[in-house]
Amino acid sequence: MDYFLVKQLHMSAAALSIVLFIIRAAWSITGNALLQTRVVKIAPHVIDTVLLVCGVILAIMIGPEQPWILTKILLLIVYIVVGTIAIKRGKTPRTRATAALIAVAVFAYIVGVAVNHDSMSWFA
Ligand code: HEM
User: Would you list the domain boundaries of the chain?
Assistant: First the structure.
């Protein structure tokens, strides 16, 4: 399997994931019915699966024992949990907006971990 192709897919899925997340979070905060559309509900799962599967393949190819990869996996779980509060589980628009901001910050931190190959992310 071509490493750069998988990496390209991984990065494209990551970009799509955050763009779709921000749109859905905005719709959730404002109570837009478009959020309930079938394609809007399914597409993020497909994209996030591609993101994760490509990440795991890359990790296997370069050796998964590096601490920054574990950091990414853990923070991906945080991104997902906080993300579901922003889009579904948060009871008030204010809670959902706060969760959305935290999720975006976690995502930005993960990108820093990826770019610098360091758990300290942009602070390395
Ligand atoms: C929200 C989650 C994630 C985001 C936003 C993300 C983002 C990125 C980005 C932007 C790169 C390219 C870095 C660069 O070379 O400049 C990358 C590479 C990579 N990611 Fe992820 N990633 C995520 C999740 C994961 C997960 C869960 C894993 C492992 C299971 C993973 C494993 C990797 C690996 C191994 C590379 C290759 C690094 C390299 O060749 O330099 N990623 N990721």
Answer: 3-123
By the 8 A CB rule, do 93 and 4 touch? no
Q: For ligand 1, is residue 55 a contact (CB within 6 Å)?
A: yes
Model-level pTM? 0.94
State whether residue 65 is helix, strand or coil.
coil
Q: How many CB atoms lie within 10 A of CB 80?
A: 13
* Through-space distance between the first and last CA atoms of the chain, rounded to whole angstroms: 31
User: What is the rounded distance in angstroms from the CA atom of residue 116 to the CA atom of residue 122?
Assistant: 7
Q: Using one digit for the tens of pLDDT, what is the confidence trace for 32-74?
A: 999 999 999 999 999 999 999 999 999 999 988 899 999 999 9
Q: Does 47 contact ligand 1 (Cβ within 6 A)?
A: no
Q: Which among 11, 21, 81, 121 is the best mutation to test ligand 1's pocket, defined by most ligand atoms within 8 Å of the CB?
A: 11
